[in-house]
Design brief:
This protein is of the alpha+beta class. It contains 15 helices and nine strands. The strands form three sheets. Strands 1-2-3-5-4 form a five-stranded antiparallel β-sheet, with helices on both faces. The chain has a two-stranded antiparallel sheet with strand order 6-9. A hairpin with a 2-residue loop joins β2 (about 50-55) and β3 (about 55-65). The chain starts with 15 loop residues before the first helix and ends in an 8-residue tail after the last helix.
Length: about 375
Amino acid sequence: MPAEPTSVDPSYEASVEDVVLQSAARELRVSPESLSAELLAGDASSRSYVRIRRDGGALVGVRYPRPFDRGDASTLQIERWCRDHGAEGIMTFANDPVCHIEMTALLARAGVPVPEIVAVDDRAGVILLEDVGDGLVQTWMSTAAPADVIAVFERAVDLVAAIRFATRSIQEAGGAGARLALDGDKLFWELEFFRVNTFDRFLGAPLDAQADAAVRRESRSLADALSDRPRYLCHRDYHARNLMIRPGGPPADSVVVIDFQDGRMGPLTYDLVSLVEDPYAQLENWLRQRLVSRFRELSLADGSWPGDTEFGVQYDLATAQRMLKAVGTFTNQASARGTRRYLPFIAPALASAIPALGRLGDFPALLECATRLETASFETA
């Protein structure tokens, strides 16, 4: 949990736009009247985004839900959060502003294009970033030239390798990303999140006792099998809504990575699966295969390739886990927040998870569960 600063901005409870505008005026040393604020559409987190316009350009303010102390280390943030959240603290630690600051510096050094931090106003819970535009790859690709789409996704695969290259750096620095991991407990927690949010809360149709026990048992087994593989630094949420095209240049040279503050150690295939099997992008099979082949060449070059057979198993394990977790996120957004715009992406997530579970052959209860969901009416539930 972020530390409470000794002096909290008295406007902290004001509207998000006003807080970020006042923060920008202080940090830029300009009059508030010379700026304008526009609340932007957010993501599935508790953060808010505000575009601040000024003469000659714009910034984006990320407003975190609490003030923080930028002098803290991210590992201290974890300790505070876990102290106040008990046994599940390490599972639920996320979206931390100090992690945002640390990971920005780490990834930039590794050659990953990320929005530059212009200023930090910790009393107001605000980080001011360069404005990289509104070009989410998810929306951009619907009207882009096919050759540009291919080039952008190939560039995205290259950036997975660049993030992986930063593994040693984050381990040496000892930040939160080195301490946190997609380990067996975390991966199992995410599968439990899928089960509870999808069946119990959203559909209102809990599994019967026998099926429930079998799904939990297989979820633990799948999580442990994936966790047992070697770990590298992962973005953790690497998909077409967290990649942007900066305006003004060739698309492939203009890719920017966002929402990386929850980066942590995880399996080789995790970010690749998030990108290639992304329900938001729904890539054609030939392009998926092309991207996997590119990943293979990059992994052979840096010595991380585990062999073709082992890679296939790792890929299917990550696909099953990641796509079921995504379904849990989509149903949670609908049941807990009333946000139904993610429901259309459940079907493509299942379309990836079900074949992967079938190929693995070791998780019949999870496969039956996922197959049953294919016929559920998520649009009207």
